[in-house]
Amino acid sequence: MEPFVFTEFLNRKHNMKSIGYILYALAFIQFGCGNGEKNANKLDTATSGTITVAADESLRPIVEAEIEVFESIYPDAHLNVVYTNEYDAMQLLVNDSARIAITSRELLPEEKAVLDKATITPRYAPFCKDAIAIIMNKASNDTVLTMEQVKAVMDGSYQTWQDINKKNTNSPIQVVFDSPKSGAIRHLTDSVLKGATLAKHCFAVNDNKAVIDYVEKNKNSIGLIGVSWISDRDDSTSNSFVNRVRVVNLVPANPETAEARTMKPYQAYIALKQYPLWRSVQITLREPRTGLGTGFASFVASDTGQRIVLKSGLVPATAPIRIIELK
């Protein structure tokens, strides 16, 4: 049977009322000087003002969900989000065009050096555990891939569908993703390809929605998307996406048992770090004081913010969890 995730929010100190008290208190605490972003007209607080947020586009559904609730609780808070690839999101932060960045990595040494030169100490706040989902066309007969096969497809060792399964046609494989500078490609290059170059049949199609559209229309394609685009079973848009494609089961590179266990990017497997392409998401802040970026990061890490993560089909970063297998 499939394991289910049940989250226990222990020590419930962060109910809605206490969150408000904490954030309003933060609004009056100063940890330095400076306005943060370029062209800021006035100082924002933890619960009010306007800032720019840079976010990896693969995380858009969960980021939108968090901001929608945050702004409904604090109507004087306005977060203008730039959804882009992971690299450019960090560049917006480093160049003072965004107050915070939401990505699946920390600053690179050269990025941190720019902030060091400006005497800004970056801070990190946990967001959630996420994953990269591999999708195929509905007509595909291959619903399971080993991580060895994923690597072979990505590095070009496998060129056709027959390379994956001798029963398949000899049609060429196409692999599509959102951007050459995306977090998904960086993660796969680092963890699967170990720095090797992507094959020529791997190419970008702009964003995650475009990846889903392409895979739906092209039966010989494989797509890479952020799992939050298809993980929220209560969201009609998420359901419409997942109904248009097949989500691939992955077999870990080193299965714990002789009988390899196949895994989709479900919460339980992400929580246990068993799904091979799981990743941590965090907020990087460049605020020299406690402003709206800090207020939003505090909200995301709170009981309410982490419940939004759980409801979206992802794994909370700050809440203990229990995994229960239903017999």
CATH architecture of the largest domain: 3-Layer(aba) Sandwich
How does the helix and strand content classify structurally? alpha/beta
- CATH secondary-structure class of the largest domain: Alpha Beta
Query: How many whole angstroms does the radius of gyration measure?
Result: 21 Å
Core attributes:
single chain; 327 residues; alpha/beta; D-Maltodextrin-Binding Protein, domain 2; 10-stranded mixed sheet; two-stranded antiparallel ribbon; 12 helices; 14 strands; 32% helix; globular
Give the topology.
Blueprint: E1 3-7, H1 16-26, E2 49-56, H2 60-73, E3 77-84, H3 86-94, E4 100-103, H4 109-117, E5 123-136, E6 144-146, H5 147-155, H6 161-164, E7 174-177, H7 183-191, E8 202-204, H8 208-217, E9 221-226, H9 236-242, E10 246-247, E11 249-251, H10 267-271, E12 278-285, H11 292-301, H12 303-311, E13 315-316, E14 321-325
Give an account of the 3D structure:
With 327 residues, this protein is α/β, with parallel strands linked by helices. The chain folds into two domains: 3-129 and 281-325, Periplasmic binding protein-like II (D-Maltodextrin-Binding Protein, domain 2, 3-Layer(aba) Sandwich); 131-278, D-Maltodextrin-Binding Protein, domain 2 (3-Layer(aba) Sandwich), CATH 3.40.190. It is built from twelve helices and 14 strands. Strand 7 (174-177), helix 7 (183-191) and strand 8 (202-204) form a beta-alpha-beta unit. The protein is globular, with a radius of gyration of 21 Å.
